[in-house]
Structures are given as C-alpha cells and as structure tokens.
Amino acid sequence: MNASAASIAHDAHGHHGPVLQYQPGLPLSRGKLIMWLFLSTEIMFFAALLGSYVVLRFGAAVWPKPHHVHLSEPIGAFNTFVLICSSVTVVLALEAARANKRSLAKIWMLTTLILGGLFLGIKAYEYSAKFSHGIYPAAPRGLIYERPDLYYGSAVRARLSDPAIIEQMKELDARPESELTAEEVTGRRRLAQVREMAMAVDQQAFDLAVIADQVMPLPNEAAGGHGHGGGLNETFSWLQLPIVIPGGNMWASTYFLLTGFHAVHVIVGLIVFSILLLYELGPKHAGMIENAGLYWHFVDLVWIFLFPLLYLF
Amino acid sequence: MSTPNPNETTASHGPVTEPGPLAESRAGGGSTSAEHPAGHGDESHGGLGLYLAVFCALCFLTTMSFFTYSSYWPWRDEPQVGWAFMMAVSCTKALLVVLFFMHVLWEANWKYVLTIPAAMMAIFLAIMLIPDVGLRNRMVAQERALHMARPADLLLLERAANAAEGESHHAGDHDH
Q1: Would an 8 Å CB–CB cutoff place B130 in contact with chain A?
Q2: Which residue has the higher pLDDT, A95 or B71?
Q3: pTM of the model
Q4: What value of ipTM does the predicted structure carry?
Q5: What is the mean pLDDT of residues B150-158?
Q6: Could you point out which of A18, A106, A123, A185 has its C-alpha 20 to 30 Å from the C-alpha of A59?
C-alpha cells in the first residue's frame, strides 16, 4: 500500500520525489492525543485515591468531623474559587493565543500562574495549621491517639516526665500571676489538675477522657462553637501533649495523601505554565497551551471532588 | 459533524490523502501540536460570553455545596441528604468543566473511546475496594479492636467536655 501511495504521489508531483502522507487515525494532533491518554491514566490514579478515601471513611467506626481536625470550610471554598478562576484564565489565554493576541495571552497565562501560586500558598497555610496542632500523617511528630485509653494515659505521663517539660513547668509555676495572661492563669491551674490526674494511681477511664479534653478539646458540633476555649496545647505551645481524635490517624493519612498528590499536580502545572511563558503565545503555540490547559482543568476537576469530600462530608 | 471523513478521501484518491487534514504536514515535525486538522473545527467555540456563563455557574454551584455547611441548610440531622446533594453538585461542576473548558462538547467521537473505559475502570476500582477495605470492621482481631476508636469514645469525650464546661461556668460564677 505504501509503495502504491508513493508512486501515486510521485506521479502527482514528478520532480519532488515520493512524498508519503498518512491519514491520522484520530482527528486530533499527536500532542493532544497523548495528553488525553495521560489524562485517562490520571483519572484512574485519582479514582484509586478518592475511592480508597471514600471506602475507608465510610468503613470506619468513627471518622472525625471537619472541626475536630481544624479544617476551615470557608478557606476550602475560597481555594475552590481560586482554582475555578485559574481554569477560566487558562481558557482565555488559549482563546487569545488563537486570535494572535500575544500579549493578552501572556497576561492571562501569568494570571493563571499567580492563581495557582495563591492556591498553593493557602494550602501551605492550612498544612501549617494542622502541623501546629500536632496533626501529622505519622509518628514521631504526629500526636494523635485514637481513644483515651491506658496507652494514651501512659503517653501523657511520659511527656510530662520529660526533663525539658519538667523544667518548663517549674518555670511556669515560679512566675507570679501578674506576669501571666488570664488564659495562662487558668491554663496553669488546669495543667496542675492534668498532672495530678495523669500521675494518679486510681485512674478511671473517665479521667483519661477529661485529660484528653483538657489537652485539646474537640469542638462541639451541636453548639456550633469551639467548645470551651483552646486546650492546654494551644495555651502552652511548648507542651505538645498527646491528643485524642477518634479516627484521626486514618483521617490524617488520607487527607495528606490526597491533598499532597493534588498539590504535586498543581506544582507540575505551574512549572509547565512558567515554561510556556518563555514562548511567544501566538497561534503557533496554541496547541501547547491547549494541552497544558487540559492538564490544568483536570487538576481543577480533582479538586472539585476533593473539596466536598474532605471539607463538607 | 464537522470531522473529516477519511473514507471519502480514501475512496476518491486511493491510499494517499489530501494534505489538508494532516496535522503533521504543517506542524513541521517536533512541535507537539502546532495546528489542528482543518475542518476539525475546535478553534474558538466558546467565546468570552459562554466561558463567563460557565464560570458563573461554577461559582454558583460551589456556593450551593458550601450552603450545606451553613446553618440554613434544612437537613442538618440527616447528613446523607447533604452528601447526595454535594455529589450531584460536584458531578455537575465536573461535567461543565469537561464539556466547556476542556472542549469535549465539540470533540469528535474519539472522546468516548478514551473517557468511558477510564471512567468504568475507575468505578470498578472503587467498588472492588469495598469487601476488603470498606467492610474491614465487620471482623476485627481482638488486638486491633483494643486500639480502635469507637463511637463510645466520642461519647466519653463529649461527657468529659460537658463536665469541664460546667466546671468552668461554675468557676466563672465563683470569680464574680
């Protein structure tokens, strides 16, 4: 077939020699085809992550409420808005490039880059809020215990027996009341109670729950507020006592895995956009912008599902 | 609709096709995809107005799913209603992004070849996790049950919180 094709082409353009031309299998360019193939593998990648999350969450006996793990719904909603805006700007960049409005395309591309950076910044702020509460995906930094049981009690005792902490507590006890804030005064009183209860010989199950509540109270959903103020860990940041969040360890693992992989995708997208900014964004490079845009919309798509699943469920 | 019909060209010209619909012939080799096959027609479908309309719809839908979090949401006691609502909203948003921003609405039929198998495998993947992962707490080793959080733990913590709240109120009264 190729031979006959060559001969026909040869006949048609005698002096050009044989020119082989092929019909593409699909009515789209190679770059776009490969991007779509890549995206279909990405669909399965995130389906595995999201599917495992949903199955783990609904199979768990207890799953923490968003407020138990210090998630802020308005921040999540704002991040959704930021990503949607960036999706629009990348589409507008493509349209501008196709219309040969190069500088306009560049402005839209730069806006997309800034919005992506804003998303990452907000995400980093959220991560730091988790870390400051001792919510990490794993030990040794993670302070989460599943239930206020004997293991939790012994972990609290171990922390309170740490020489550095004993030193800090001595310092706190020595300070006159006039030097302390009102919060620190009540905190000191509560810390003394907790120490007494943690070291007590005739400890009851309820005592351990009281200790957990004093260290980091779980906000009361029904009251809509944040319980009775911050716990000891918040008043004294050096304390870092173990905390109790039922289901918190599995929550932390899934949350950091899902949002982490999504953030990695955002970072890759930003790198691609930075490279695109080096080019003249005219019709010649519209295909590149389109492919980068397809990837970026997919990243947006994943967040569209992540936001309600993580923040509102 | 506007896709080139390869059969027709093949029939009239033999195995050689017209140079028109070839992306490679004009792209000049290495570049990923400089231009699209003529007649494929995915240049400027939407226009600013359509994209802004989709953007407004997306913002509205985000507000709707955020609405379930507000105190005006009437089904606060039945979270399942909110979950179903939010998933419906998310699927609608995903559909809008895929159809308009990713231009799938204007693509030829190849879109089904790529998206439907991937979507089906994604769904089966999640379903296959149910027996081993989703139902993992039906049969639990005693050792694991010892360390597992249970709803009773939440109740215990709640009782402790209420006791502490009562105490702090009491202390507050005492101060005054």
Answers
A1: yes
A2: A95
A3: 0.82
A4: 0.82
A5: 90
A6: A123
Within 8 A of B160 by CB-CB distance, chain A residues are: 148, 206, 209-210, 212-213
In which residue ranges of chain A is pLDDT below 50? 1-11, 13, 224-227
Q: Distance (Å, rounded) from C-alpha A148 to C-alpha B150?
A: 11
Quick one: residue A240, left, alpha or beta (phi over 0 = left, psi -120 to 50 = alpha)?
left
| Of the candidates A41, A297, A73, A116, the residue with the CA atom closest to the CA atom of residue B95 | A297
The residue type at A222: A
Look at residue B2 in the predicted model and tell me its pLDDT.
Answer: 42
Residues from chain A contacting residue B110 (CB–CB below 8 Å) = 26-28
Closest by Cα among A11, A292, A139 to B101: A292
What is the C-alpha R_g of chain B? 29
User: B13 falls in which pLDDT band (50, 70, 90)?
Assistant: very low
Residues 34-53 of A with CB under 8 A from B: 36-37, 39-41, 43-44, 47-48, 50-52
Taking alpha carbons only, the member of B120, B101, B102, B122 closest to residue B111 is: B102
User: In Å, how far is B171's CA from the nearest CA of chain A?
Assistant: 10
Is A264:A42 a contact under the CB 8 Å cutoff? no
CB pair distance less than 8 Å for B9 and A224: no
Q: What's the pLDDT tens digit per position in B72-129?
A: 888 888 888 999 999 999 999 999 999 999 998 988 888 888 889 988 998 899 899 9
Do B161 and A218 count as a contact with CB atoms less than 8 A apart? yes
Handedness of CA B107, B113, B114, B116 (dihedral sign): positive
**What is the reported pLDDT for B3?**
44
Supply the pLDDT for residue B44: 58
CB contact (8 A) between residue A22 and residue B150: no
What's the confidence (pLDDT) of residue A89?
A: 95
Contact with chain B for residue A160, Cβ under 8 A: no
Which is nearest to A36 in space by CA: B50, B93, B116, B21? B116
pLDDT at B42: 46
DSSP labels for chain B? --S--HHHHHHHHTTPPPSTT-HHHHHTSSSS-SS--TTT--SS-SHHHHHHHHHHHHHHHHHHHHHTTSTT-TTTT-HHHHHHHHHHHHHHHHHHIIIIIS-GGGS-THHHHHHHHHHHHHHHHHHHTIIIIITTTSS--HHHHHHS--HHHHHHHHHHHHHHHHHHHHHHHHH-
What residues of B are in contact with residue A148 (Cβ under 8 Å)?
153, 156-157, 160
Please tell me if residue B27 touches chain A, with a CB cutoff of 8 Å: yes
